[in-house]
Specification:
The complex is a heterodimer of chains A (about 525) and B (about 180). The radius of gyration of chain A is 23 Å and the shape is globular. Chain A starts with 16 loop residues before the first helix and ends in a 36-residue tail after the last helix. Chain A has 16 helices and no strands. Chain B folds into 2 domains: about 40 residues; about 120 residues, Ctag/Cox11 (Pfam 04442). Helix content of chain B is about 25%, strand content about 35%. Chain B contains 3 helices and 9 strands, in the order ααβββββββββα. Classes of the chains: A mainly alpha (about 525), B alpha+beta (about 180). Chains A and B meet through helix 5, helix 6 and helix 7 of A and helix 1, strand 9 and helix 3 of B.
């Protein structure tokens, strides 16, 4: 490889606000993404607390039902598109160039653009809260005809989704180009860290399905304003078709939200077990099979709309098949820890909690996959419990584990270990207090997205609300720890963790503004 | 720089894939309609008109119930009701019934009824020989129109199905075309 190092590549960078607006540096953009996700995390969390306040007791207390439905809709959109996806893209920006030994992302200017679209998209989405007719309240799945009854907010909702899609497609193109073209000599595909592998597969999923979502919401837009009848039965369309299009995007989307966390956990577990990852190649193949299967299971979200028996059986068995590669992954993580010299620093605690609680979420997913049982569970709190178990102690815990794990590398300072552990135990306790009772009320028949409930659900809902406030407050501690670590603390060594393995640990802590200008040689 | 050229090349390929997937989402629309017509999904029975003539069914002794349901999109302008809500029928035999539609408004209504059969899997066994749903209806203000329906149910209907529901939704076509 004959990469010519230009003279302009030195450690100087513009200071002040223009540094951040004009930056094309992967580390700066990674930081921007992560802070954006942090801000959105508190906004989305605040919406969740409005929901939980209303559900603290039966009856209507604080908000009117329309606003309650806006909160469930906006909470989902903010948390999925504003927190989990940008946080993972931020991690990808920071880590992928350092992990594969490249100088930066492949297309730095596009990288800048793909981040700066996001604040505009979300200002547009959040501005709908003050519009006539209120914010979107038909659920994040936007099913017509209900979503078409949204007031002035509707076109803003659609365009903000277009922008979010554009941003993540550009991010994905950048990730793929970086991984395929910018690897250091000797870094073959099967030597890449698993975080890089899982992101490569995630990026392909993004490119395959985000345009489908864009197409689906464009059809909604033309149905509402241009007299088309894609989903309007009166004009020969079919509202059920939207559900098929949406979930053809939606199921791969849920793996977009979880696959990078598999990569994070696969990096952390070997470090603190002080053993190489068990079954590296089976991990790669398992991730690829999960991605493939995600395209042929979408209708399990809509068992109750009326699908022929053969279709329901196909989607049931295809869904259950996903448990096999996922089981391979969980087995490999547990086997990596087996007889390892384990220590339990904060990143490891979050990673272990991820394995346990993600598996709980996986099991409730298997229960939902059983078609006849799903007719009972459909649209109940059991579904809410299921996807919050895979997303909060799943994706969010993995993101937090990643922050604790790489923060010393990024900032050069160790985070305060005791505070980190307190944050972990508070989060774990309260996340279970919030979401575990939802299984019970769901099985007993409490429907989702309703601001009121019958009296027999009162106790568990009160417990869940207390848990939600506890979890929310615990995250302020997380914010404090991150700021404190950036400002100072015990200096971190270059290696940071004695069991850590990978190119990013060969760089100084914090790494120079431009790293690997001369590519390292991987044996 | 050689690297940059390669990156741009990769990006271009991926952008083409994106456009392809965007177009694919629109291709799903005709694809979905074809699949529904072939399988009778969503109670879609529109393709069955031609088939009915060539069927010569054996009349079976089995009895089953067929229920009629009516919906109207614009309730303050239109009254739409079946003349009888339920019939006991034998598979293979041709029956007739009618629906009544009344224009309560002061303007002419141009409308059409769209059928749907439940359970879905029964839709391919229900043959409509003559149905008001095949064509548009024009109803003068205050007029009451009798809408005839001739149908038979194939004796190939799975025996576990004892009740069929045929539902019609009456759509106001003027309103739809006026929208743009």
């Amino acid at each position: 490889m004959s990469s010519v190092v230009k003279d302009t590549h030195h450690d100087d960078h513009p200071s002040g606000i223009m540094r951040w607006i004009r930056t094309t540096n992967h580390k700066d953009i990674g930081t921007l993404y992560l802070w954006f996700a942090m801000i959105m995390f508190f906004i989305g969390g605040f919406m969740a607390l409005i929901i939980r306040s209303e559900l603290f007791q039966p009856g209507l207390q604080f908000v009117d039902p329309q606003f309650f439905n806006s909160m469930t809709t906006m909470h989902a959109l903010v948390m999925l598109f504003g927190v989990v996806m940008p946080a993972f893209t931020g991690l990808a920006n920071w880590l992928i160039p350092m992990m594969v030994g490249g100088p930066d992302m492949a297309l730095p200017r596009m990288n800048n653009w793909s981040f700066w679209i996001l604040p505009f998209a979300f200002s547009m989405l959040l501005s709908t809260l003050w519009m006539d007719g209120g914010a979107p309240a038909g659920g994040w799945t936007l099913y017509p005809p209900l979503s078409l009854q949204t007031g002035d907010a509707f076109p803003f909702l659609i365009f903000s989704i277009h922008f979010m899609g554009l941003s993540s497609i550009m991010g994905a193109i950048n990730v793929i180009a970086t991984i395929l073209n910018m690897r250091a000599p000797g870094m073959t595909l099967m030597k890449m860290p698993l975080f890089v592998w899982t992101w490569l597969i995630t990026a392909f999923l993004l490119i395959a399905v985000m345009p489908v979502l864009a197409g689906g919401v464009t059809m909604l837009l033309t149905d509402k304003f241009f007299g088309t009848s894609f989903f309007n039965a009166a004009g020969g369309g079919d509202p059920v078709m939207f559900q098929h299009i949406f979930w053809f995007f939606g199921h791969p989307e849920v793996y977009i939200l979880i696959l990078p966390s598999f990569g994070v956990v696969s990096s952390i577990i070997p470090t603190f077990a002080r053993k190489p990852l068990f079954g590296y190649s089976s991990m790669v193949y398992a991730t690829a099979s999960i991605a493939f299967l995600s395209f042929i299971v979408w209708a399990h979200h809509m068992f109750t709309v009326g699908i022929p028996l053969a279709g329901e059986l196909f989607f049931m068995f295809a869904t259950m098949l996903i448990a096999v590669p996922t089981g391979v992954k969980v087995f490999n993580w547990v086997t990596t820890m087996w007889k390892g010299a384990m220590t339990f620093e904060t990143p490891m605690l979050f990673a272990i909690a991820f394995i346990v609680m993600f598996t709980i979420g996986g099991f409730s997913g298997l229960m939902l996959a059983i078609t006849p049982a799903d007719f009972q569970y459909h649209d109940t709190y059991f579904v809410v419990a299921h996807f919050h178990y895979v997303l909060v102690p799943g994706s969010i815990f993995a993101i937090m584990a990643a922050c604790y794990y790489w923060l010393p590398k990024w900032t050069g300072n160790m985070y305060p270990e005791t505070l980190g552990k307190i944050h972990f135990w508070l989060s774990t306790f309260f996340v279970n207090l919030t979401f575990f009772p939802m299984h019970f009320v769901g099985l007993a028949g409490m429907p989702r997205r309703i601001p009121d409930y019958s009296l027999q659900f009162a106790d568990y809902n009160m417990i869940a609300s207390i848990g939600a406030f506890g979890f929310g407050i615990a995250q302020i501690l997380f914010l404090y720890i991150v700021i404190k670590t950036i400002k100072g603390g015990k200096k971190a060594t270059d290696q940071v963790w004695d069991g850590a393995d990978g190119l990013e640990w060969t760089l100084p802590s914090p790494p120079p503004y431009h790293s690997f200008n001369t590519p390292p040689v991987v044996k | 720089m050689k690297d940059m050229k390669m990156n741009v090349k990769t990006a271009k390929k991926l952008i083409i894939v994106c456009f392809g997937m965007f177009l694919f989402s629109f291709a799903l629309v005709p694809l979905y309609n074809v699949i529904c017509d072939v399988t009778g999904l969503n109670g879609n029975t529109s393709n069955l008109r031609e088939k009915t003539e060539q069927h010569s069914e054996k009349i079976s002794n089995e009895k089953l119930n067929i229920q009629f349901i009516s919906n109207e999109i614009n309730k303050d302008k239109i009254d739409f009701k079946p003349s009888e809500f339920e019939m006991t029928i034998s598979p293979g035999k041709v029956y007739s019934t009618y629906f009544l539609v009344r224009n309560k408004s002061s303007s002419i209504i141009e409308g059409q009824a769209i059928p749907s059969v439940s359970p879905n899997e029964a839709s391919i066994y229900l043959n409509k020989i003559k149905c008001f749903c095949f064509e548009k209806q024009i109803i003068e203000p205050g007029e009451v129109v009798k809408l005839p329906l001739y149908f038979s149910v194939s004796e190939k209907l799975p025996v576990r199905i004892k009740t069929l529901t045929l539902s019609y939704t009456f759509f106001d076509l003027v309103k739809v075309s006026k929208k743009d």
